[in-house]
């Protein structure tokens, strides 16, 4: 079979698009490999500085842990909720969809001020809660990740016949828990992963809430390096980009594996 | 004692009454179809039996035990759905095995049972395929195997063939019946397709407006419809709105027609005279006069394969009869030919319209 021809204009636009994204990265990379003493190419010293800085490892570990905690809490909270809304309370879906837009609309600076005021002045939350990133920051990040997790999961649930799958599972003797774990969850896996990776990307890059609530996370570390060291700043920016990119690529690969499977034509086996 | 009993089941959704107190009993191993148009309550009734919905009142009894309040996963009923319901993340084998795993059956026993069931539905080689690798017909076969795997006391089928093409539908419905007879499993089958219901059921319950209009064997439903609706819904029928005349006749728009069933009925009573097209005979007029028949001309002739459907209308355009004739016989009856249509006096069935003053006049195809 002949491959479809790609027109010249399409190729030109593709190159323009690629250049738009690649040139800043290339420039950052070229800047990051300059020698700290001479300012000339090429040295991996800036990467060495970052990789040998214990603060890099401390903050990246913290941010990863916060991201994982946020992902786990978000999925535990939202998967059963959205499942139930799709199954039994479909009228609530637009309401939750509207609520999910609020973190998009409210700037993080307002969110953190509001949250701090709410927890400190209204709830009188103790210091062990407010002073520990695993508690306060994760609470804020769950709110921040809500739209991403909700819209990903919502799309996942809409792509399957929740009612029929649930009823089929129940008619075979399965409980609600078994149905959720063995039937529903595996079929919204890609949507859950999508929400999880978006959450990871957000938490790994979230600066405002962390800095205003006086926590030192990976984004605040990047900011510190940016202010103090030029070449390592470019290096750490690229490394940060690489982490996010790797997360997205893994999502893409998982999604593609399923799509390739789904695209198999069954002509030879059809009755 | 009946195996399954539906007693006075009622269900409303807001202002809409879906079921108005239906009663139905099934013997062990019986295949009963709930047949009716969209919105008649047949799926609602099936969902109540499955436990996916609760009735407002009434009860569901299986083997003498009231299971109305029992949750669906405790009811021991297998169900095949209208929509493709295989779990997309599992292969055909895993789908069939799912219910057995839930029941914590030993692995060896599970494997053997899965193999047997896939063989039973003719998919022994498709066990490793995922649902997206199976055609619609194959998916429904696997769904049937999955429902049967748990050896349910009752099998429920909710229009399982409606998404399939005509050829596969006929093939699969015969297989469903074969398997049901082989396993002797009590089955409730919901469909809106009368041919499907009549061809595979022991009994058919025709539903309309949330009520069961008539329950009976397929031949009985076809030959002796108890209500105008059943007559209209099952098969093709000539429906002649007439009044009872004297001496075994009816008055069809001023034309006397001999109908044995009219004997003994009060003269002047409004009746619906039901005549199956296959009992109607048509001959070329050529000076023929019949004691009882509609004289007119052929207004349409529709080729249906081995038979041809011929419609005859009288000169005034008020009276019409439809006949299903063999195609060979119908060859001479071209559109416009002057003919006489008649039927044996013992073939029509009469239903009183005394309580139904505004019974609609529909064409014989029920359209």
Give structural notes.
The complex is a heterodimer of chains A (271) and B (367). Chain A is built from 13 helices and no strands. The longest helix of chain A has 34 residues. Chain A has a domain of 147 residues: MetI-like fold, CATH 1.10.3720. In chain A, helix 1 packs antiparallel against helix 13. Helices cover 78% and strands 0% of the residues of chain A. Chain B is α+β, with helices and mostly antiparallel strands and 367 residues long. Chain B has 2 domains: 227 residues, P-loop containing nucleotide triphosphate hydrolases (Rossmann fold); 117 residues, RNA polymerase II/Efflux pump adaptor protein, barrel-sandwich hybrid domain (OB fold (Dihydrolipoamide Acetyltransferase, E2P), Beta Barrel). Chain B contains 9 helices and 20 strands. In chain B, a hairpin with a 2-residue loop joins strand 4 and strand 5. The C terminus of chain B is likely disordered. Chains A and B meet through helix 8 and helix 9 of A and strand 6, helix 2 and helix 4 of B.
Describe the secondary-structure layout:
The complex is a heterodimer of chains A (271) and B (367).
Chain A: H1 8-32, H2 45-51, H3 54-87, H4 93-105, H5 108-122, H6 127-130, H7 133-158, H8 162-171, H9 176-187, H10 189-205, H11 208-212, H12 218-228, H13 230-262
Helix pairs in contact in A: 1-13, 2-13, 3-7, 3-10, 4-7, 7-10, 8-9, 10-13, 12-13
Chain B: E1 4-13, E2 16-26, E3 31-35, H1 42-50, E4 57-62, E5 65-66, E6 77-80, H2 92-102, H3 107-120, H4 136-149, E7 154-158, H5 166-183, E8 186-191, H6 194-200, E9 203-208, E10 211-216, H7 218-223, H8 228-233, E11 238-244, E12 249-252, E13 255-258, E14 270-275, E15 281-284, E16 294-303, E17 307-314, E18 320-326, H9 327-330, E19 338-342, E20 349-352
Parallel strand pairs in B: 3-8, 3-9, 6-7, 7-8
Antiparallel strand pairs in B: 1-2, 1-4, 4-5, 9-10, 11-12, 11-14, 12-13, 14-20, 15-19, 16-17, 16-19, 17-18
